[in-house]
Design goal:
It is built from three helices and five strands; from the N terminus they run E-E-H-E-E-E-H-H. The protein is of the alpha+beta class and 150 residues long. A five-stranded mixed β-sheet has the order 2-1-5-4-3. The two termini are 16 Å apart.
Amino acid sequence: YVILNREIRPTYLHGRVTWEYRKLDAQRMQEAAGQLLGVHDFSAYRAVACQAKSPVRTVYQLEITRQGPFVYLDISANAFLHHMVRCIAGVLLSIGRGDRTPDWAREILRTRDRTLGGVTAPAGGLYLVAVKYPTRYAVPDRGWLPAYGC
């Protein structure tokens, strides 16, 4: 997930990134992200219309990095629920702006209530980088990460 974090609205990147004009604290976002690692019931981080039979997912990696005005959220999991990444991004944006504390991410997770989870972040900026299949299917790992501003 790619966020352009500057005061000026994007021009050529419109629809390709999420724009946040308020300063984001990537360190606070990373602190919150660490609380979502592991096996959890992500009911509070999925769309109401999600049709998955189980909301339990394993998040292996959730890293927040900043490169100039760009903030990247790199998430890998065994599977994702409908809008799961966008819901996580929305919570992390609130925390990065200083509206909430990093512990809020865990509090939402524990409630299992989507209505308490804050705003679903926009679709602009969401990228599927790679899908890894079991080796028995012989599907090669190929993917690329959009790197704006490098």
